[in-house]
Amino acid sequence: MKLLNAISGAILAASLLFTACNSPETTVKEKADFTQVIPTLNAITADWNKGDLDKFVTVYDSAATFMLPKGPIGVNEMKEHYKAAFTETGTPTSTLSFDSLEMRPLGNSHALVTGRYTLTAQDSSKQSGRYTLVFEHSDKGWKILHDHSN
């Protein structure tokens, strides 16, 4: 009898799990167009190089985080960090370029992008580093959820 109850309990648990996983609330997002991730980065590079920091940060989700040595900060703090470190009167003082880009899908609507950035100052000096970006695709297009640049 104990064995029958255990088997019945296992069958009931499995059927509840199957039902929960296939309920209308559990919908799988349609696979996003991953070919648009890199062009999204190219567009914000152009925004930076035009001196439009406001447009540059529009690729970040409003809840995005940016990693600093002291820990993660939000988008507004990131924008202020960029203003203080890389601009004069709100306009970037160097041109931005990306290379060594690699994009890897993470499920149907997320992507991991790694690469190297280079900032070239007006005197031709360069500063570069590596970065990791986590993107999410939504009805607003590709948005950065997390940026870890060094």
Automatic annotation (TrEMBL):
Q: Which PROSITE patterns match?
A: PROKAR_LIPOPROTEIN
Q: What InterPro entries does the annotation carry?
A: DUF4440 (IPR027843), NTF2-like_dom_sf (IPR032710)
Q: Which residues form the DUF4440 domain?
A: 43-144
Task: Give start-end of the signal peptide.
Answer: 1-20
Query: What are the alphabetically sorted keywords of the record?
Result: Signal
Keyword Signal appears in the UniProt entry: yes
Q: What stretches pass through the bilayer? A: none
Q: List the protein's name.
A: Nuclear transport factor 2 family protein
Q: What is the originating organism of this protein? A: Pontibacter fetidus
